[in-house]
Amino acid sequence: MFGLQYIWDSILQYEAVLRSPYFPVFFSITVYLSFCLPFVALDALSSRVSWIRRYKIQQKTSVSWKMMWSCLALSLYNHAVYIFPLSVLHWYWRPVSYPVMAPGLLRVIWDLATCLLLFDFQYFVWHLLHHKVPWLYRTFHKVHHKYTSTFALATEYSGAWETLSLGFFAAVNPMLLGVHPMTEMLFHILNMWLSVEDHCGYDLPWATHRLVPFGLYGGAPHHDVHHQKFKSNYAPYFTHWDKLFGTLHSE
């Protein structure tokens, strides 16, 4: 509790920044690119460094700077044209209040798990529908499947509808569950990391799916198969929904 309180007190020193309508977009872009950059470095080196390439899931593929720039440009465009105006509206419509006390550690863990599991379910249903209904796939989701070999900057390579609808799930869940603002920030950070890791294209020894036991978490190999096969592995993180619906595929 005392550690969390110290962190929260440090964050509250920048409350004026937190209340700025520019903060959500700055936060999102900064965290996202910070998570992408290590994998960008791996992609740049993998063709020349064999010990890096051996961890690449699709070892015969490579990522060009043109591909990475195309993905980055679309992500920046979506943030500027769609996410920023909505952030301003949200800032005007629902000002955030920041309590003095930090949440307890067990409450943070519980709320993070609940937000993540709820998002995983929402994403699964959304994703399944956008593959099973041809019009939805052609109109909205096909953009994200331009690359059959995943890489980190392809995480946010999607059209406006996909960006906004999945962003809506991520934004509204902490509100619905009434979590502490600190927990909400941690959820967005965790969600972005897991999403980038899903698309990174590498099966690293310390990857999340290797840390979670019993095959409960799919990770990068799970999602890479989805980009190759298209008709399986619709859940972003955990494997239980794909198991229940018979859509789990592993290689």
Automatic annotation (TrEMBL):
UniProt entry keywords in alphabetical sequence: Membrane, Transmembrane, Transmembrane helix
Location(s) in or outside the cell: Membrane
Keyword Membrane part of the UniProt annotation: yes
Gene Ontology terms for molecular function: iron ion binding; oxidoreductase activity
Superkingdom of origin organism: Eukaryota
GO BP field: defense response to virus; lipid biosynthetic process
InterPro entries (UniProt xref): Fatty_acid_hydroxylase, Sterol_Desaturase_Related
Transmembrane spans: 22-46, 67-93, 105-129
Name of the protein this chain belongs to: Cholesterol 25-hydroxylase
Stored Pfam families: FA_hydroxylase (PF04116)
Annotated source species: Cyprinus carpio carpio
UniProt keyword Transmembrane helix, yes or no: yes
Location of the Fatty acid hydroxylase domain: 113-247
Cellular component aspect of the GO annotation: membrane
